[in-house]
Amino acid sequence: MRAGPCLRPVGPLSCARRPRPFRPRIQNRSGTLFAYLAKRLLFMLPLLLGITLISFAVIHLAPGSTVDLETSMNPRVSAEARERLRHLYGLDQPLHVQYGRWLKRLATLDLGESFAPDHRPVKDKILERIPVTLTIELLALGLIFAVAVPLGVASAVRQYSLFDKISTVVVFVGFAIPTFWLALLLMILFGVKLGWLPISGIRSLDHDSLSAAGKIADYARHLALPVFLSAFGGLAGLSRYMRSNMLEVIRQDYITTARAKGLPENDVIYRHALRNALLPVVTILGLSLPALIGGAVIFESIFAIPGMGQLFYQGVLARDYPLIMGILVIGAVLTLVGNLLADICYALVDPRIRVGG
Amino acid sequence: MSPFLRDVARNQLAAAGFVAVAILALVAIFAPWIAPSPPDRIDASNVLAAPDRAHPLGTDELGRDVASRMIYGARISLAVGFVAVGIAVAIGIAIGALAGYYGGWVDAVAMRFTDIMLCFPTFFLILAVIAYLNPSIWNIMIVIGITSWMGVARLVRAEFLSLKEREFVVAARAQGVGDARIIFRHILPNAMAPVYVSAILGVAGAVLVESSLSFLGLGVPPPTPSWGNILTAGKDNIEIAWWLSLYPGFAILITVLGYNLLGEGIRDALDPRLREGRGRRA
Fold it and tell me: Whole-prediction pTM value?
């Protein structure tokens, strides 16, 4: 297929590689954010069901049932008692019945009782840990966004400059650094050698005696390293992504037009290019949630932070299966919710999504 | 700088990655000849000794030579990396090829399954499965493999979707060639390029996951030397023995960086769109 007559001078935007013209899709003018949302929610249902199905499969494919675990330590348990326990837990029912029951309890957020000596409901244990983890993740997300976007834009605007090269190298190294190792090094530097920051927990022993401002400062000192480390991995990826987006956008026709009509370069970059380059970043932030939540296990156990990650780690060490399954399901659902939020943000800032798709 | 020089500079990064990967492979293969002492030799009189002439990277809490343990650790990391990625690639190809080739409900089911797997925070999923298994090097490989095939499946499916419409496939089908033969002999070889890139990058990811798991005490069980295990000892002795924390992490960093650079370099070389974007016309 040949392109039409080319009137523009041959340059980076010659006909050979002219980007596809932008055609807004407006077949469906009645599409609203609400309809879009409803559709997205509907699509989420099978995913949600699949998540529970896989979680359930993981529970039941595992060798050794709950009953074996509870009775294997006690040789005096008779076969009948074991049968009674099996009946009590519903393990004598066919699998699909068990799945149905489990799902029904899940719907009411009844995740069962922890195997830990305290025998508390898993739901309570998780709920009291979620705020800590969410706070750290949200702060980390904010930090990622605040640092990665300017970094990516600066690299793209000055492509192949010294700054761009240095940031490229830093990003590559950042990708490769094991976060838990960086955590150890920073603990040694700031905690042990310099003694500036505490290296465990989220508050000091004398926290309650501090003033309000002192309490906030105390939290900040404890959370500085965890938040930085949590953000670190995503930082490298997002700034790289931002750079390539920006590079793509500033090659578009409308940027050339903006320049041609004499707009100051800053206006071109920050008003015309940045807005368009930012759009996909929203989705990426949503997609980076699983990695962030997963990473919480590592740094929460390193820094002894009482969050969901640490709870999960302790659960795994103690083979506390109800707890493990509860967190697994909740982690997946949180991811799903994060993706949905990202989609909503995307639809809010980009009307094309709402009207078209 | 001219586009040509830029290309050379980029290739140099990939070359540096290749050198790192090759050196690591040699170290892993020839570990018994390179290591200054056996990795398990305990020296009770030299516990937590700082780096010196006898122990260039110091000793650990049992007086074992850290340099030797790291050299043997390279074997563990690479073995886990390669086997895990092999498993992931095999599953990914199977699911992606079926979905892309047959389409319809097979495709719908396979891709929804892939989406669902992607919803789980990977590290949570890995830990949850490990909680049911005994930590052993084989289990670690299997678990990493069965939780990281999703990217490969999507790549292979996309390749199959476009390749199955091409003339050579249509011609093969017209000659009465069976489905299996078309999939494995005609389409798959043409779909492998992005898979290789993904596999090389996957080795880097698997090495990171293995060391994280070992660091948490849920990976390769302790007497076996693994970089993550040495780092655990580093954490336990963080106030006195910095060398236990510094060097193994450095080894992980170099490994992951090497595979990433190599993978990205190959990807750029394979993707003509990117090359054009850098200002060179093919």
Answer: 0.78
